[in-house]
Amino acid sequence: MMSNRGSALSGPKPQPTSISYIGRKISSLRWLPSLTKDSATLSGCRVLVTGSWDDTENRLQIWTVDPLRREFARGAVLGSPQLQSTLTQAASITEIDSFDDNRLIVGSADGSATVYNVDSRTFQASRQHTWTELHSFTTSRWCSCTSVSASSDGIHIATGGEDGRINYFGAGRVDVEWSRVGIAGCSVRKVRFRTSSEVVSGNMLGQLQVWDVKSSGKRPALTMLDKADEGESMHGDILDLCVHPDQRSVVATGDSEGVVRVWDIRHPTYPMSITTAHEAPVWAIRFHPGNPDVLFTAGEDGSLLQWDTNVMRANRQHFSVQGDINVVNLMGATKSLGINALDVETDLLACGSDSEALIVVAPSLSS
How confident is the model over 299-354, as pLDDT tens digits? Predict the structure, then answer.
């Protein structure tokens, strides 16, 4: 186990990029990799879902992106995303996650979560079921459902909220099957499935916790917190987390101090890697699903970072971090307000910001 508290930020490399201003602050977005279109006019297109926040009318929108289309002769600009459908709601959308097929789970600031079906021909989303008041401080006052996660088998859903509660239930069930409160009033920032029966959460105290939904116990199976040698905590709020696609014991987190940590829950005493590259909170973090040696982060400083693949290696036995970490800012000289969300699928990465910009990048995955 090695710890790296520094990083080398290199200059931007030219990347095919599209920037579209959609008139809404983007809180969350997800690719739908399994959704395809039969029509020849959209053959090869990728499907992207965005959610907005902080408006009187918030929108869940579905877009298509052609990764081969170029709008300028120089070939450095991707074609703009094409809007296919829009649903509106009053509450801010807090997070979107996708199942294996054409279903979405959408969390909202009114404490609810909704499953939508997306038609593969029309790209219209239809509501399947809404769970209301999943999160509340009292029986009469709801609070935000801050995070949603769908299990990889598409059977279960987990939610986290400002009330410190984590819920677990079947996608086809009406009632919540399992519910626990980590620390009352301590907001759960993110939840992610590690396995079909284990949920990883990150909270505003900087705690990374693992919950076993098969256990009747009221406490998490494991709690991890980075501490200095003197025993003092050295952390910010965990704002986002992601589980390594191949090594499910490995979890990466981004916090409010701009720090990225990589943890192995088999060795929970200290993080494997501690690295600062952002100058502001890290709002989003993702491993590349097909090339998980690559990690992407986005932050309040407006930067979108791709972490060097040469120093973050996984194999069947272990995940290791070695040497200086080289980081590339994919945004280059582009100025943006904080980037709130990102998602990556095969050769395309999308991110959204409070500047109402929807950004699509085709990053180079070569080292």
Answer: 999 889 988 644 444 333 344 444 445 556 666 655 567 899 999 998 899 999 99
> Of all residues in the chain, what percent carry a pLDDT higher than 90?
59
Amino acid present at 169: F
Amino acid, single-letter form, for residue 14: P
**Three-state DSSP class for 208?**
strand
> What is the DSSP annotation of 4-66?
----EEEPPPP--EEEEE-SS-EEEEEE-TT----SGGGTT-EEEEEEE-SSSSEEEEEEEE-
Q: What are phi and psi of 41, to 5 degrees?
A: -70, -20
SS3 content of the chain, % helix, strand, coil (to 5): 0, 50, 50
How many CA atoms lie less than 13 Å away from 210 in the CB half-sphere? 19
Strand pairing of 8-10 and 326-329? parallel
Rounded CA-CA distance 151/134 in Å is 18
Structure tokens at 324: 């200086």
Give the integer Cα–Cα distance in Å for 322 and 142: 45
Residues contacting residue 352 through CB under 8 Å, at least 6 positions apart: 26, 27, 28, 29, 50, 339, 340, 341, 342, 358, 359
> Residue 28 and residue 340: Cα distance in Å, rounded?
7
- State mean pLDDT over 58-86: 80
pLDDT digits (tens, 9 = 90+) for 209-264: 999 999 999 999 999 988 754 445 556 899 999 999 999 999 999 999 999 999 99
The tokens describing 332, both together, are 């280059």
